[in-house]
Amino acid sequence: MRQTVIAGNWKMNKTPSETRLLLNEFKELLKNSKSKIIICVPTISLKDACEIAKDTNINIGAQNVYFEERGAFTGETSPEMLDDIGVKYVIIGHSERRKFFGDTDDTVNKKVIKAIEHGITPIICCGETLSQREKGVAINWVRKQIKIAYKDVTKEQAVNTIIAYEPIWAIGTGKVATSEQAQEVCHTIRKCLAFLYDEETAEKISILYGGSVTKSSIGEIVSQADIDGGLVGGASLTSEFAEIVNIADN
Ligand code: PEP
Questions:
Q1: Cα 227 to Cα 177: distance, rounded to the nearest angstrom
Q2: 134 is catalytic
Q3: Ligand 1 lining (C-beta closer than 6 Å)
Q4: What radius of gyration do the chain's Cα atoms show?
Q5: Which residue's CA is the closest to the ligand 1 atom numbered 1?
Q6: Distance CA 7, CA 86 (A)
Q7: Which segments of 118-198 does DSSP mark as H helices, in order?
Q8: What stretches of the chain adopt beta strand conformation (E)?
Q9: What is the pLDDT of residue 174?
Q10: In a mutational test of the pocket of ligand 1, which residue from 123, 232, 238 has the highest number of ligand atoms less than 8 Å from its CB?
């Protein structure tokens, strides 16, 4: 049985002081939660966040990582740096990184491999645009993204990864995919993992849905057979996040 995972993506929100306040609030609100909780904070707050979350049930994640170990890569953060301060999760290939910062399926694959090498669990994002959905190519697109993301990842490594299916048209727009739409793609992703590895491996990998998740939509989303939780953007910035976790728990 896969554990429900609720991950928050704070994007470029919350200063370090605001981060400390909100995480301390979450620590209290979430202390009895059964779901796995991951909060992905801005890079500048990672160290503080890891210290606040130490010995709690909150895991801290980064929102990006580079695929080289060190060197002349101004502004980037290496997996070793994340590992050194205790970061155990990292979002890779979020659609905003693909759109604004040039991430591609190939760089996503390189980042996934590097994160795994350093014992950091990648949360691998995939998802189609509205025009791809309207043209009926969403399923094939996501399947291609998954195949490239997992290139040269062994099955022993794959079981320690998380996938987030995030239809781009649903991110930050208030338009949630219907639970049938989300389940259909997440089921395809699981089938794709079974094709790349085997059924047993595919059954072990958590697949989350992301895209305007709120306390009103999470219940139906996590009740779908192939959806194991949510990647939550906007609604992870307030105490609504604790309500989302609470609903997902039950
Ligand atoms: C996200 O940032 O991954 C996301 C899904 O955002 P939102 O929940 O705001 O749509």
A1: 13
A2: no
A3: 9, 11, 166, 171-172, 210-213, 231-234
A4: 17
A5: 233
A6: 17
A7: 130-135, 138-149, 155-158, 179-196
A8: 5-9, 36-40, 58-62, 89-92, 121-126, 162-165, 206-210, 229-232
A9: 86
A10: 232
Q: Tens place of pLDDT for every residue, the chain, 250 residues?
A: 799 999 999 999 999 999 999 999 999 999 999 999 999 999 999 999 999 999 999 999 999 999 999 999 999 999 999 999 999 999 999 999 999 999 999 999 999 999 999 999 999 999 999 999 999 999 999 999 999 999 999 999 999 999 999 999 999 888 888 999 999 999 999 999 999 999 999 999 999 999 999 999 999 999 999 999 999 999 999 999 999 999 999 9
3-state secondary structure of 14: coil
Active site residue 94: yes
- Measured CA to CA in angstroms, residue 61 lies from 7, 141, 210, 223, 234 at distances of 9, 27, 16, 25, 16
User: Which candidate in 68, 156, 166, 199 is catalytic?
Assistant: 166
Give the per-residue pLDDT at 176: 83
pTM for this model (two decimals)? 0.97
Q: Which amino acid, residue 171?
A: I
Q: Whose CA is nearest to atom 5 of ligand 1?
A: 211
Mutate to test the pocket of ligand 1, among 6, 9, 237 (most ligand atoms within 8 A of CB): 9
- What count of Cα atoms within 13 Å lies in the side-chain half-sphere of residue 245? 25
> CA triplet 181, 185, 188: central angle to 5 degrees?
145
Could you report how far apart the first and last alpha carbons of the chain are, in Å?
15
